[in-house]
Amino acid sequence: MAALPQEEALPQKLNFGIWFRIMKYATKRMDVILIVLFTMILTTFYDASFVPAMNASAISLVGNETLLASFDLWELPFHVIFIRGVWEIDINFATFLITEGIFVIIRSVSIFFTFYFTNYMSMLIMVSLRRDLFRHVQELSFSYFDKTNSGWLIARMNNDTSAIGDTLSWNLLSIFWSVFELLFTIVTMFSQNVKYALIVCVSLPIVAFIVPLFEKVILKRHRTARNAYSHYVGWLAEIINGAKTVKTLSLEDTVSEEANEIIDNLRIKRFRAGRVNALFRPLLNFISAVMITIVILFGYQDIDNARVSDISQIATYVAVIVLFIGFVQSIYSPLEGISETFSEFMANQASAEKVIQLLDAEVEIYDGKEVKEKYGTLFEPKKEAYESMKGDIEFKNVTFDYGNGIEVIHPLNLKIKAGTSVAIVGETGSGKTTLANLLCRFYEPTGGNILFDGVDYKTRSLGWLRSHIGYVQQSPFVFSATYRENIAYGKLDASLEEIRSAAKTVGIDGFIMQEKEGYETFLQDGGASLSQGQKQLISFARALVRDPSILILDEATSSIDTESEARVQEAITPILKGRTSITIAHRLSTIVNSDRILVMDKGRIIEDGTHKELMEKKGSYFALYMSQFRDMSLGEQLSTYQEQIEEKQVKI
Amino acid sequence: MRGFFKTSWHLLKGTRFLFFFQLFLQLFVGLGSILNTFLIKVLVDTIEGVEQLDKAEAFERAVIFLLTGGRGNQYLYDNGKYILPTAMIVLASVYGLSLFLRIWMRAYFSMQFNAHVQKEVFSHIQRLPYDQYKTSKEGDLLQTATRDIMVLRKFIAMDSANITWAVWMVVFCSIILFGLSWKMTLVSVSLFPILFLYSLLLTNHVRKLYRATDDSEAALTDKVSENLASVRIVKAFNNELYEISSFERSLRDYRNKFLSWKRFNAFFFSSSDIFVFASKVIALLWGVYLVYLREINAGTLVVALLYVNMMVWPVREAAQCLANMGQNIASADRIQLLLDKPSEDLETGLTPKIEGNIVFENVSFHYPDSKGATIKNVTFSVKKGETVAIMGKTGSGKSTLLLLLTRLYDYDSGSIRIDGVELKEIQKRYLRKKVVPVLQDPYLFSRSIEANIRIANPKASEEEIRYAAKNADVDHTVQGFKEGYATIVGERGVTLSGGQKQRVAIARTLITKAPILIFDDSLSAVDTKTDFEIRENLRKNASEATTFIITHRVASAKSADKIIVLENGTIGEMGSHEELLEKEGLYRRIAEIQSRMEVE
């Protein structure tokens, strides 16, 4: 019934190019890398060389009766072999004790630095990636956001960056750690006894072959299980959100069946992932057990020989046997470490690729070189060079397509005088929002020019244009910030007086002042406690505090109920006076008072006039108006008819 | 804490045997590795000579007895090179086998338990009364069904095993060691209590720092998603620089919290490592001293070193698991809280034959969270097969009135009878198969269009689905999609327009062939022509069903047998189109306006 999750395939090969590119974020701090390397070497030395060598010297001492009997406690002689023939030391018990104590401290301090600075690297990579991604996203053009949903972007900027940070820092550490651990172990083994060392080494290739085999299966099955889990969560969220539908259609039984199916599917997949270890662990254990047996068999032979030739050697062999039993048990873990690391890189390669893809996403709308020289860049603007704007707008043969070759605006010529209030109406898809997008230069015309105050806007900077436009979008957006910050977003350095005067103009000042902390009241969760109408008013105030020459209202009241709409309508009428305003309207009730109404159809302007003129003409505008009128609730129909037909003396 | 065990015990129902069995297997695994390690001591003693074996303590003597079949120490000394490796291989095999069983059974138990809890919690969630959905905070139910279950499973399946493992290890290793030398044992484990408490306390603090980091990261994510949601505003207001600097602030806060968490975490590990390694070093040095005094022999020293290593890590691990208890208890509490909520009774009640004659008599209703009544003294009756149009201003109670028929809410007073049977007496499950609404804001599941329609009637044939879609006037639209009825709806597939959604939802309702249908403003997003066609289809093909239509269009209401105009929860006007036109009132006024404006 319910669709089962699709799997994302694992990459076939490691893509070194991508990982090296990300490595650059880490190599900025060579000092940190060196500290990690140094402390990591100390730690692995302690684990793989120091402890076995010290223990071996102690065991071979305590097994030797004659030595024990001939020394005082503190003078007991320890012969410690780190590297045979190169680094052997003779110390007494007192020194032995102190050395052990000091090295416990050294190891603990080392592991502190290793852990801390590896995390530091992880953080550095993650934070640098997040910073670069965020900056880049600020520059990206609109067309990118049309194609990409914000969930995808958030996943890249959060999950992927931290996965990359962790993978790169911890797995690189893990590789080096494993290599050094293996190296120290092998050196110590050969230093203690070449023959046994060779025996143990024989088993290495077998294990090195088996481990990646299991590792691959484990990785794959875990991914499958994880996938099944996120499918389960998604499914569950949907059922909970659709509770009303489930209940009214009495779908409980169907849904329960689905639940069982999905939960059992998850159960089986997780079990399949978990049980691989049931074979893997005992198998490794069994290989160790066989190796231990072999070591003991050889050991017995050597000891039998020693009994005949040199009895004092017996204790050394005992130490060697005990030591190698330990080696056999510990030598496979670095192999596992290396194998796991490769799996991890594989598993996270997709993350890295997607992040790089986002970093490389093309910025389509940008200022030319000359414009940048005069007006500065997006991140370093030269605001003093910005000219003022009167508000004349002209479209000259403007055409546009969204890059797919389908023209959505056909050669369009339009002149709007400064100070006019213009409304653009039309069916969905007629091109009215595209027109607003072109005006704000969210997109650029494919052909023709757009002129402000008689100057092509491409010869001036994006910053200049937008500093003169007040834009109010369809769904009012309220930031999780204070009222003051929300309104000041339109003019970052606005004084409280300016902010209040904007709020007063739209009629929300009284409401804000009633709040506990007035303008400093923090709006949780994007103003969840506010009504749509209140949010809309804040959004208007924000555009107004800019004191813009041009106001663009892009379906600014379409998402609020009619009563609030009427209030907003009343509030903005005085604002529009003396400014050029472009109102894109879906609901016609809002624009009946405009100086000029343009009706768009399939990328063309087909009617142009006032509400009264167009209604009496009984053309497209009339038809549009009618179709909306009938969707109003009864009370609205009554009042709207009175206001917009009777009072305006429209004859129909 | 008692609540925690009670909840866990309740949820373990059905998997209790497995739970104890896999813990029991743990005991075997533990004993296997402890005995195998002990053989190393026997090996060392054997090599040292018969006289060492003669001095053996009770436990070792028992082991030797088993190894030699009672043939004595000399026999072991002579044949050690065969007996000991064989014993080790045999023990390792037994150990391997029990390890295999343990991992297998634990994975099996863990998943079985998890699935069981998920099913129990889910079946409870979906039996919650509709009211509970509206009052629980969004996401809370989901949180309990996912994260809280995960936390509990982790404890029941992993942490509890880690803790018992530590207990087995400390108990068995100490007992064996104690038999060999109490002096050696006491000194070797002397640091364990400190290690345990130290880890317990510090892990708690690590978790606090972690939570602060997590919160800071959530704030950072909020910042990013706010930025992305407001991308138009950011660009239009040319505030990219401002955004970057406020992002930097969040990023810096996160970075600092992250680093202080990790710094303390590293400190925790490295400092508790001191106890771990010091324990081992103390065992070694003290052991050498005891050998020097001839209190113990080399074999005992070796096995003591190995045992200390086998005990010390699990002790630290167990402390960390126990530090988690607060979180486990909170999760178990939330699960219990959910399970304690009342569930809706779908089963009891009558299942009378329902044809569609409905009588409302003085029905009143108010929502639990509001003071005033939403429906006040409503009285009317409908005969089988009739169509009733309900009109009225926003908030006049239109939807509420009709939802009472589905028993999502039960009316406070008065009486609703369907074919003579009091509505409250009818079984909910049965009723909801007979009274099916198309909701105002239709909800489609993210699966294929076909599955979305079929879900209301799993036995429907393909023809029936297409027939329902045709009647809902959506067949043509669906055929236009590349994948037709297999087109996936929603985020992963095609986004449908409001009107398309409404029509799929209508098809979904029609396929139930219910005798009572409710269209809650279900045609608001389609144009007048489609609206008309759908109503015509209904009239022709579902004429025996009693139909309620909530609408704002006089044209839609006109053909209804009865039109009810609701005003503030009471009936303002009622009658046929013609009857209402004769009365002075809201309906006539609107009808006049609409007809005036109809003129082309």
Q: Indicate the percent of residues in helices of chain A.
A: 55-70%
Q: Uncertain regions of chain B: pLDDT < 50 for 5+ in a row?
A: none
Distance between the termini of chain A: 55 Å
CATH T-level topology of the largest domain in chain B: Rossmann fold
Q: What is the number of domains of chain B?
A: 3
Spatially, the strands of the biggest sheet of chain B line up as 6-7-8-3-9-10
Specify the CATH class of the largest domain in chain B: Alpha Beta
* Average residue-wise pLDDT of chain B: 89
Specify which chain pair forms the largest interface: A-B, 146 and 147 residues
Overall geometric form of chain A: elongated
Q: Which structural category do the helix and sheet elements of chain B fall into?
A: alpha/beta
The backbone outline of chain B, from C-alpha atoms, is elongated
Whole-number tally of structural domains of chain A:
3
Unreliable stretches of chain A (pLDDT < 50, length at least 5) are 1-5
CATH class bucket of the largest domain in chain A = Alpha Beta
What's the quaternary structure here?
heterodimer
Distance between the termini of chain B: 76 Å
Determine Rg of chain A (CA atoms, Å).
38 Å
Residue fraction in strands of chain A: 5-15%
Describe, in plain words, how this protein is organized in 3D.
- The complex is a heterodimer of chains A (652) and B (600).
- The two termini of chain A are 55 Å apart.
- In chain A, α7 (194-241) crosses α11 (332-359) and α9 packs antiparallel against α10 (313-330).
- Chain A has helices at 16-26, 30-62, 65-69, 93-139, 142-147, 150-192, 194-241, 243-248, 252-309, 313-330, 332-359, 369-375, 432-439, 462-467, 483-488, 496-506, 509-514, 532-544, 562-576, 611-617, 620-629, 634-646, and strands at 77-83, 87-92, 393-401, 407-416, 421-426, 447-452, 455-456, 469-472, 550-554, 580-584, 596-601, 604-609.
- By secondary structure, chain A is α/β, with parallel strands linked by helices.
- Chain A is built from 22 helices and 12 strands.
- The longest helix of chain A has 58 residues, at 252-309.
- The model of chain A is unreliable at 1-5 (pLDDT under 50).
- A 6-stranded mixed β-sheet of chain A has the order 8-9-10-5-11-12, with helices on both faces. In chain A, strands 4-3-6-7 form a 4-stranded antiparallel β-sheet, covered by helices on one side. In chain A, strands 1-2 form a two-stranded antiparallel sheet.
- The relative contact order of chain A is 0.08.
- Chain A folds into 3 domains: 14-192, ABC transporter type 1, transmembrane domain (ABC transporter transmembrane region fold), CATH 1.20.1560.10; 193-330, Up-down Bundle (ABC transporter transmembrane region fold), CATH 1.20.1560.10; 372-609, P-loop containing nucleotide triphosphate hydrolases (Rossmann fold).
- Chain A is elongated and about 130 Å long.
- Chain A is 62% helix and 11% strand.
- Chain B is an alpha/beta fold.
- Chain B has 3 domains: 1-179, no CATH class; 182-295; 358-598, P-loop containing nucleotide triphosphate hydrolases (Rossmann fold, 3-Layer(aba) Sandwich), CATH 3.40.50.
- Chain B has 23 helices and 10 strands.
- In chain B, strands 6-7-8-3-9-10 form a 6-stranded mixed β-sheet. In chain B, strands 2-1-4-5 form a 4-stranded antiparallel β-sheet, with no helix packed on it.
- In chain B, a hairpin with a 2-residue loop joins β9 and β10 (570-575).
- In chain B, α9 runs parallel beside α12.
- Chain B is elongated and about 120 Å long.
- Chain B starts with a helix and ends with a helix.
- The model of chain B has no long low-confidence stretch (mean pLDDT 89).
- The chains are: A alpha/beta (652), B alpha/beta (600).
- Chains A and B meet through α2, α4, α6, α7 and α8 of A and α2, α5, α7, α9 and α10 of B.
